[in-house]
Amino acid sequence: MADMQVDVAIIGAGPAGVAAGIGAREAGAKDVLVLERDWDLGGILQQCIHPGFGLHTFKEELTGPEYMHRWVVRAREAGVTFLTNSMVFKLDEDGSLWVMNPERGVFKVTAKATVLAMGCRERPLGAINVPGSRPAGIFTAGTAQRFVNMEGYMPGHRTVVLGSGDIGLIMARRLVWEGARVEGVFELMPWAGGLRRNIAQCLNDYDIPFYLSHTVTRVHGKDRLEGVSVAEVDENRQVLDGTERFIGCDCLLLAVGLIPENELSRMAGVEIHPVTGGPVLNEFYQTSRPSIFAAGNVVIVYDLADWVSQEGVAAGRNAALYAAGALKEPLRRIDIRGGANVRLFSPQYVTAGEDVTVYFRVLRPIEKRCRVFADRGLFERKHRYVRPGEMNEIRLKAEALQALPRSVTTITIDAEEV
Amino acid sequence: MEERILSMICVSCPVGCDLKVQARGKEVVSVEGHSCPRGVDFAKAEVANPTRVFATTVRVAGGKLPVCPVRSRQAVPKERLDDISREVARLTVPAPVTIGQIIVGDVCGTGVDIVATRDLAAEEERS
Questions:
Q1: Which structural domain, as residue segments, surrounds residue B92?
Q2: Do B117 and A63 touch (CB under 8 A)?
Q3: In this predicted complex, what is the ipTM?
Q4: Model confidence pLDDT, tens digit, residues B68-126
Q5: DSSP A67-78
Q6: Chain B, window 62-81: residues with a beta carbon less than 8 angstroms from a chain A beta carbon
Q7: B36 touching A, CB under 8 A?
Q8: What residue segments make up the domains of chain A, in order of their start?
Q9: How many CB atoms lie within 10 A of CB A242?
């Protein structure tokens, strides 16, 4: 297969990548190519068949496949080229990609700018150190979601869910509809990982027990899972003596966190942030390799697909501007620093070139009136609460950043009680 | 009629407001804790006739995938979800399926259609 040359190449046709394609075309890039390893477009949202997507973008609640259908139609109208069954297996420092495709074989794509839109992966059992055997019947919630919603398989009939991330909550409800029994959702932390409404509509609606400060302490079974031991934990997440009990089940689902997928980014020498696990970005969604941009869950894991798409459009637009030599030169560098109650945030620094929304998650919930702010009077908004499961926004104006004295090289963001 | 105070989480949007709802029979007397008008609508529906949008899959014959995702076009009464789920589980739909295609019209007499939420090509149409 002949090598290809494009203006903007995008890796991944999920919400970030499809939107990046639109953003790049709308900003004037001629050849915009999106590479997708699956046979279909849409990424993980194709398996998210529940409603809840697109309230911000389309002013109505769509299912994942419907949401992506609309974006893909828009992308095709915008003149974006898609190549499916195409696995990017190597990314060079200049953003060139090496691709494998069953019809075209191995070929190289040279791009003036590249957008990383690979999304994220689920933390597997190996990441959480649960003692016991390793029988069949243990799945990440997303794998089970693909089995049930796309492949037509049931992962089990009596299920325990460890972790309260949104996919785990959604799958608890989904499995009930498919006739399974869900014994409970067990969360290590004293607060829920997922959105409040998913606790309400996925667990409470179906009387599925929800245990905070609990964990799975042992896996039982030889070939097939026979049950798990669960126990309560103290504030230091240590198992409390005498609270351990056995629950019979043939299926354990894990909803214990998502990690940005950055193997390709690392190959290209893109600087990865140690806490987010995603590329270090500026407000243009530009990585430490100037021709490489990034958007969506490959950067930081969002709650809402709308934000992913929005970031995709912006990253695609900036990649197109870069490809045309028209992206603004950085005026200065101001690093963003997370305060005492900030777990992670993105972007990591700003150059005062463009208005920017900094997204961040808190370490601990504040269940009373509080403020989310950037220091030096750059931003403040009052909230009724902040919770680790819900992303917060800080909006910074380019003008206000430009007006800061040159001696200012950091700004701090945080959430605190008022 | 006796007044009740109900606690509920509004599921109208991802914010998930904690609502405190004062109700008399199937009537809402007052709502606290909402941050937009949808919270009041949600509380009224929860007290009078709770509804949910239902999403599941339906079996497909000869498709690129063995199942196709479907949903109720509008919210349906919560108490009918079990019936609707059984009704949809009995079906097998031939491929190809088009997004928006009606899979079951007026499901279980609710007046609401079950529609496909994606395009699904027939198996031989592999691209």
A1: 55-125
A2: yes
A3: 0.92
A4: 999 999 999 999 999 999 999 999 999 999 999 999 999 999 999 999 999 999 987 54
A5: HHHHHHHHHHHT
A6: 64-67, 69, 71, 78, 81
A7: no
A8: 1-122+258-327, 124-256, 330-418
A9: 8
